[in-house]
# Entry
Amino acid sequence: MRISAGILFLVVCWIGYTQNQGAPPQLNLNKVKDDLYEIEGDGGNVAVYLTNEGVIMVDDKFDRDYEAIVTKVKSLTSQPVKYIMSTHHHADHSGGNVKFFPAVEIISTANARTNIVEHKQPNAPPNMAAARVVFTQETSVFLGGKEVRARYFGRGHTNGDAVIYFPTLRTIHTGDLMAGSGPLIDYPGGGSVVEWTKTLDEVMKLDFDTVIPGHGPVTNKAGLLTYRNNVEKLRTRAAGLVRDGKTQDEVGKVMMAEFGWGAQSLQMQWSLPGMMAELR
Ligand SMILES: [Zn+2]
# Structure
């Protein structure tokens, strides 16, 4: 009796352990355009661009998603991943860097690299790995006769957001300059609600019709403009409250009621205090 209870206990522990180790969350592979795919689920959206000399990716989610990402890429091509264009320093976009090194060259803005090196994301895991190749304004990778261009247009979500442009496909990956329903302004990471719309105004000047956002479904240029205008709406509302002398608590309550900020959300932690200071 005691032995079988002991075995049962071990079995329960083993199930708990394996489930805790857990398969990473389900990822979904979607075709965007010819030779361009995106992987949704868990962290930020990953773009996968196929060439006959190798694969160029945008972002690599969390490190726990590495095997699932590689499996998805292998279902598309026998070519190896050669480059990852990294949109910014957050662990849900750059957490996989540590696993893709050293076989893959990772490229980010200089600021995104600094933000990883200086641990600017308070809740990032300790194994974050920064890009080895950086740029400040613009860079391109040419592979298999195709070009992928990375641009820095200014502050927004962070101070180092790259917009990745696939010129022949007229498609961009925005990183978290467009993500979900509303902006997360990462002030510890150099973000700015004032600069955000100016940055997106520059992005809108590119020639594109398709948008892969940092999170959420693929959309189009009109979708990005709507998002930009929502950022402006939020800023105008917050600026009015600040001008009226409202406290941080009072502004936070309005953001929760009118813009869907959760009480315990990263917006309340990362965006609210910095936004009060920037709009004052
Ligand atoms: Zn982010």
Notes: The longest helix spans residues 221-243. The first strand starts at residue 28 and ends at 33.
